[in-house]
Amino acid sequence: MNLRNIRYGRFNSSLARTILMPFFRPGKPYRLWFGPLRGRQMYYDRSINFHAILGLWDTETFELLNRIFVDGGLLSKNSTVADVGANIGYYTMWLSTVMAGSGHVYAFEPSLDVLKFLSNNLKINNIGNADVVRMACGDHVGNADFFIAKHHHASSLHADWAGGGQGDARKITVPMTTLDVFFSPDTGRLPPNFIKIDIEGGGTYALPGCRRILQDARPFILIESHTPDEDRAISTVLNGHRYKAYRLNDRRWVQKPGAVHPDLAGVWGTLLLTPEEYYERVAAAIEGRGSGNSSLNRHA
Prior knowledge:
Elements: H1 2-7, H2 13-20, E1 29-31, E2 41-43, H3 50-54, H4 59-71, E3 80-84, H5 90-98, E4 104-108, H6 112-124, E5 130-133, E6 136-137, E7 142-148, H7 159-162, E8 170-177, H8 179-182, E9 194-197, H9 203-206, H10 211-216, E10 220-224, H11 228-240, E11 243-247, E12 252-253, E13 270-275, H12 279-286
Parallel strand pairs: 3-4, 3-9, 4-5, 6-8, 9-10
Antiparallel strand pairs: 1-2, 7-8, 10-13, 11-12, 11-13
Helix pairs in contact: 4-12
């Protein structure tokens, strides 16, 4: 584990902040030094984790996604991607690079506090294949209560989560859509081949709002689960839509899709949801075995 921590740049962020803070000024952009986003620029704020501003955030996850979807040929460059909970745009920037052909990224972010960082980060990097969508993703179209946490990474559609159980979160009203409606055929938008969801427990709303997409488009989904209720929402997808789940935390396939935390074989953590029909190809890519197949183009 220590070697893995060194390899993927896992270290105490507080220590990094103490050492590096004198060299960073809020509101100014800085070039990322490491990782898959090395060379990109990102605006700094004291609320931003130093792993992110250095380019070391989620490097192991990016390595796995690259192995599966780029090297393994499971996403073509003309794919459509939904980044649900785009925050400051860290994943959006990476996904836009993967979709450097005719593909497109839709970055959903309802929080006004971080929208400026998301928009500015895309602008300063001249990213033209990503659209910022100033909406939450949920189970209905209209308005919704959204709760702003002290730290922007914890803001959520769930008051308890955003408030840390202390009721200490600021409530605002945000526009909400469902992924099924946003990508409905009459919009002219192609359905997503890949969806990233990291919305601090809000998968309880977003997953029921994309049943048609799950059934018809069969996207891959990278989702971070935060609560037992979100675990159960993911479990419903696995059992109701013929998906399998690979957990990044312990690098294991979920053996009990009907169980949730604290069952270690159940649904919890950060998961890659894979349509059953692509399970063999994903498993081969994870294990480093070539599949011999070309990139998928499910919109052709």
